[in-house]
Amino acid sequence: MEFFKIRKDIPFMRHALVFNVISLITFVAAVFFLATRGLHFSVEFTGGTLIEVSYPQAADTQKIRDALAKANCTDTQVVNFGSRRDVLIRMPARDNIKQTEVAGRVFAELCKAESGTLGTRQYTTPQGEQVSRPSCTVASGAEPLRLMRTEFVGPSVGAELYENGALALLVTI
Questions:
Q1: Per-residue pLDDT tens for 119-133?
Q2: Which site among 21, 46, 53, 164 is 20 to 30 Å from 113 CA-CA?
């Protein structure tokens, strides 16, 4: 007994003209937007600073964005990284400011937004090394945020990524 009639042939070619028109429209739209708006390269391609900050509770990314806007840090990207407590801040490279100063200024502004005071604290890494890092403490002695890492991406790394991506696209085509 057969409850469902299963068709063994699927008429793909009956809809070929519709699929080709849809494909052509999306291709033309992609070329149009690529020509008019261009590509938006992130920090990994243009170079800049990556700052990872950890909070003891869920981080308020809007509060972080507001604090960075007050510090006149434009074109920053603030995203959760790993968990809701970890935040990754991406900032583009600037010619007139050293990247170490950028990371210090950003951490100081975030500490100020949490009503903390900036200082230095000794930490022990998982490998057992003693490291001195900037810290933010409040009156109770707790740390409202912790600087986990800062990385500086140079534009030469971005140029290599761009070339390898273009080569991969060429091979794919």
A1: 888 878 788 888 888
A2: 46
Q: What Cα–Cα distance (Å) separates residue 114 from each residue in 71, 77, 144?
A: 14, 19, 7
Model confidence, pTM: 0.64
* Number of neighbours of residue 137 by Cβ within 10 angstroms: 16
- CA gap 84, 91 in Å, rounded: 20
β-bridge partners, 48: 92, 153
CA distances from 97 to 51, 103, 165 (A): 16, 11, 29
Cα angle 164, 77, 55; round to 5: 120
Rounded to whole angstroms, the maximal C-alpha distance in the chain is 80
The alpha carbon of 170 is separated from its chain's Cα centroid by a whole number of angstroms, namely 26
Report CA dihedral (13, 14, 17, 18) to the nearest 10 degrees.
Answer: -110
Write the CB contacts of 149 (distance below 8 Å, at least 6 apart in sequence): 50, 51, 52
